[in-house]
Design a protein that fits this description.
By secondary structure, this protein is an alpha+beta fold. The chain has 9 helices and 8 strands. A 4-stranded mixed sheet has the order 1-2-3-4. Strands 5-6 form a two-stranded antiparallel ribbon. A two-stranded antiparallel sheet has the order 7-8. Strand 1 and strand 2 form a beta hairpin.
């Protein structure tokens, strides 16, 4: 459902983030350039158009990644592919941290909007449309691309940015599981609308996007159900995840990577009771972050007798 490093080309490393470009991007780029070539007198302009799209999407994804790091999350990989870009971010599982990590992407497009609009208006006011029609058309198209990306990403359809922003806002009042459940249900309605548009307009691209969103909505719904089940489980006292501050659930929810047996890592002090394998970090089932077991320990409460 999402692109991976497999089949991708590593372009560069910046600010601790690796940028990868999926091979299928080149196929769609060739198609996109050929479709737009008729608007210009030279092939260089549709190529520049596609490169401008690449830069705008890249800046959008870096907005997600850098914002996630700002709130203490992990973000070290971005993959660009034909459906846009994917910043693999893991913000702390708090609604505020999630909201900022997701909203920062569209905010990049908001910041670009006045700059690109000014360039498009200046090209028209300066008479560039008469002297250099290719350049004027290029500036106007890049401006439109940015607005289209901003509008599309803000649709309240999970897993688009708008859908995830909506989930973060609902999280404050409904909790993580219920907010994700509500957002994915809204996403299914949105998918139906996109599919209808794809059929009415006979646009294959809308159909592909609809399938992508549908698969991710289904995955989000399954995750919401799992989170709801986990929320009902008993919790172990004396421990808390350093990332999300949730007490760990009680039960055999950790699997040994060596013998594949399930066990409760807090009962055995991060040692598999079946094969004796030791684990330097323990992964939180709530937020997915991993920390050494000693960092999960809570300090005992200070009582009057302990102060004497």
């Amino acid at each position: 459902m999402l692109p991976t490093k497999q089949g991708s080309i590593r372009l560069f490393h910046f600010a601790g983030i690796d940028l990868f470009l999926h091979w299928s991007w080149f196929l769609v780029a060739v198609y996109g350039v050929s479709v737009r070539a008729g608007r210009y007198s030279s092939l260089i302009w549709p190529v520049l158009e596609y490169l401008a799209l690449f830069v705008i999407v890249l800046m959008h994804e870096f907005g997600h990644a850098l914002a996630c790091r700002q709130v203490g999350g992990q973000a070290n990989q971005i993959i660009l592919w034909p459906l846009g870009g994917v910043a693999y971010v893991a913000p702390p599982q708090r609604p505020g941290a999630m909201l900022w990590s997701i909203a920062a992407g569209p905010l990049v497009n908001v910041a670009l909007a006045p700059i690109l609009t000014a360039l498009a208006l200046a090209s028209r006011a300066s008479g560039l449309a008469q002297t250099m029609p290719n350049a004027a058309a290029f500036f106007q198209t890049v401006c439109i691309i940015n607005y289209v990306l901003l509008f599309f990403n803000l649709l309240p359809i999970y897993p688009l940015d708008g859908g995830q922003i909506l989930q973060s806002l609902l999280w404050f009042s409904l909790g993580r599981a219920r907010s994700l459940m509500v957002t994915t249900v809204i996403g299914f309605v949105g998918v139906a609308g996109l599919a209808a548009v794809a059929i009415l307009t006979m646009q294959v691209w809308f159909g592909v996007i609809s399938v992508f969103i549908l698969l991710n909505c289904w995955r989000g719904l399954m995750q919401a159900r799992l989170l709801a089940q986990v929320a009902k489980l008993p919790r172990r006292s004396g421990f808390a995840c350093p990332g999300c501050r949730q007490a760990p659930v009680i039960g055999r929810f950790w699997k040994c990577g060596s013998c594949l047996q399930s066990f409760d890592t807090f009962e055995t002090q991060a040692v598999c009771p079946y094969c004796g394998a030791c684990f330097p970090v323990t992964r939180c089932p709530d937020c997915g972050s991993a920390h050494p077991l000693n960092e999960w320990l809570l300090a005992p409460p200070v009582t009057a007798s302990s102060r004497l």
